[in-house]
Amino acid sequence: MTSALPDRLPEGAFRARRLIRFSHCDPAGIVYFPVYFDMFNGLIEDWFSQCLGIDYASWILGQRRGMPIVHAECDFARPSRMGETLTLGIMVERIGRSSLSLRFLGEHEPTGEVRLAGRLVTVATSLETQRAMEIPDDLRAALERYREQCRESAHG
Amino acid sequence: MTSALPDRLPEGAFRARRLIRFSHCDPAGIVYFPVYFDMFNGLIEDWFSQCLGIDYASWILGQRRGMPIVHAECDFARPSRMGETLTLGIMVERIGRSSLSLRFLGEHEPTGEVRLAGRLVTVATSLETQRAMEIPDDLRAALERYREQCRESAHG
Amino acid sequence: MTSALPDRLPEGAFRARRLIRFSHCDPAGIVYFPVYFDMFNGLIEDWFSQCLGIDYASWILGQRRGMPIVHAECDFARPSRMGETLTLGIMVERIGRSSLSLRFLGEHEPTGEVRLAGRLVTVATSLETQRAMEIPDDLRAALERYREQCRESAHG
Amino acid sequence: MTSALPDRLPEGAFRARRLIRFSHCDPAGIVYFPVYFDMFNGLIEDWFSQCLGIDYASWILGQRRGMPIVHAECDFARPSRMGETLTLGIMVERIGRSSLSLRFLGEHEPTGEVRLAGRLVTVATSLETQRAMEIPDDLRAALERYREQCRESAHG
């Protein structure tokens, strides 16, 4: 599965910088690996709000929709340490009826060295019924536009 | 990769019970998924100390060895909620020269329903040189005994 | 305020043992201080369920009551490290109309050295109205019994 | 002690904006209180690097100095929720021989409503000897300049 993970971010991909903090690191001095999954979740929030044009908090709290994670994985190619900065990027891998597969890449700044490559699969869920629901049209359209934008930039 | 994850724990597998706490859960009321990876790491500690006969803290702090995670994955079959109890179990999948692949299963107690199935791959590392090292003989022997113990119980 | 914090647990106080894990510690090798506040919250859960006879999860999720923290404080007398075990204990300081002040003490096991002494003040809240409510009678009675039990043991 | 906590940030105080994320919140939908202490620690890092001109990571990792917290407290005046933004500010309360007392204020943006007011006391420590050390001259000078800058702006 490692080979299927991306080795660089397309130009059009949404990115955010993350400073590695003291609190992210363990007694061995490197980022404690579950922290990266938390960073992926935060990146989804920023991507929704800043790129897809969907307010993540309203989507969850107002419309009572959930995005539970049904699969998570990550390859950690190299450790990162306090004081370093990572650029995290997000890509759409697959848009299903109710599921969504996302890929993540973390590059060291400024060298561009790939530090980690991950994947999350989430399922759109109604918090009222606790059941999977179809990905709503507005989100689906935004996801497809985003995927196209990444593709074009990758082949540009 | 989902299909390769185990669907039940062999009798001989090391297990620990984990109460799902308020602090493990998110605004949707279910365990925030990175918490499970933290639980896997804690389970490794308990398994070393209580089952393999190796004091985890001394191993890390005293002998300056590390066990950085190079791959992590998990399938979350069903969500868990505050007040529920999970039984987490650990299995040895592969013992390499310096790498070790472990599998994890989380079952709801008392129904036995599988809630999650994960995998961590770690590499024995010298904290002095920051390089991979061969898995030390005492750990290797303990791992092989444990794997045998799980196998026998599975086929018993 | 330091002087007002207790310097030993009365015999009758509810206690729980906590192993200090790798994930609790920071790059300086000691417990990252917010972790202690998380431990206090977990101790309240155990105390409700195991000592006061009130199922914490049902109380929150079923009856839609909350216990938001309005004040938190802790003195950290000495650091703790991976592999050490702390005994955490809880005491009732004050039972108000809707507020409850609790004290916490953390002792190293087996030396009994006091490592930390904390206080949390919480307010019983209806999650429906988001407003403070009177502490329900069943909880108040359990809290008063517990306080008495600690007092008697302290003067025994 | 509540009354001694500040009720507004002086103009000259260092500030940072923090988006309240899904992962910061608990099943009651509000920020889980230990998260605020983690935010305070992160604010100290940003303040060192962006305001005091001292690279926090080098200070800890390179010069092997620590800043363990010996006292932490916070009043939580009002809860905060996913999607809200807080402005966190920091003030120097007291500069001792080796100890440093800092105050924190968290205001809701854009209303300015005070949501929380905290205090951390830390002690400069040599990670080599694990003993308190005098606050180094460069840090002391930077702290005194900062305190002056806050005072002037407060009385301006």
Give an overview in words.
Four copies of one chain form a homotetramer. The first copy, chain A, has a single domain (15-155), classed as Thiol Ester Dehydrase, Chain A, CATH 3.10.129. The two termini of chain A are 27 Å apart. Helix content of chain A is 29%, strand content 33%. In chain A, β5 (99-109) and β6 (114-123) form a beta hairpin. Chain A has a five-stranded antiparallel β-sheet. A three-stranded antiparallel β-sheet of chain A has the order 2-7-8. Chain A is built from three helices and eight strands. Chain A has helices at residues 34-52, 56-62, 137-155; strands spanning 14-19, 65-66, 69-76, 85-95, 99-109, 114-123, 125-126, 131-132. Chain A is α+β, with helices and mostly antiparallel strands and 156 residues long. The longest helix of chain A has 19 residues, at 34-52. Chains A and B meet through α1 and β3 of A and α1 and β3 of B.
CATH fold group of chain A: Thiol Ester Dehydrase, Chain A
Structural class category of chain A: alpha+beta
The CATH architecture classification of chain A is Roll
Distance between the terminal alpha carbons of chain A, to the nearest Å?
27 Å
Domains of chain A (count)? 1
Radius of gyration of chain A, whole Å:
16 Å
- The side-by-side strand order for the widest beta sheet of chain A comes to 1-4-5-6-3
The CATH C-level name of chain A is: Alpha Beta
What's the helix count of chain A?
3
CATH superfamily of chain A: Hotdog Thioesterase
For the largest interface, the chains and their residue counts are: A-B, 27 and 27 residues
Topology, number of strands of chain A: 8
Mean pLDDT of chain A: 92
Large-scale geometry of chain A: globular
Q: Which blocks of ≥5 consecutive residues of chain A have pLDDT under 50?
A: none
Q: Could you describe the largest sheet of chain A, including whether it forms a barrel?
A: 5 strands, antiparallel
Classify the beta-strand content of chain A into a percent band.
Answer: 25-35%
Looking at how many chains there are and whether they match, the oligomeric state comes to homotetramer
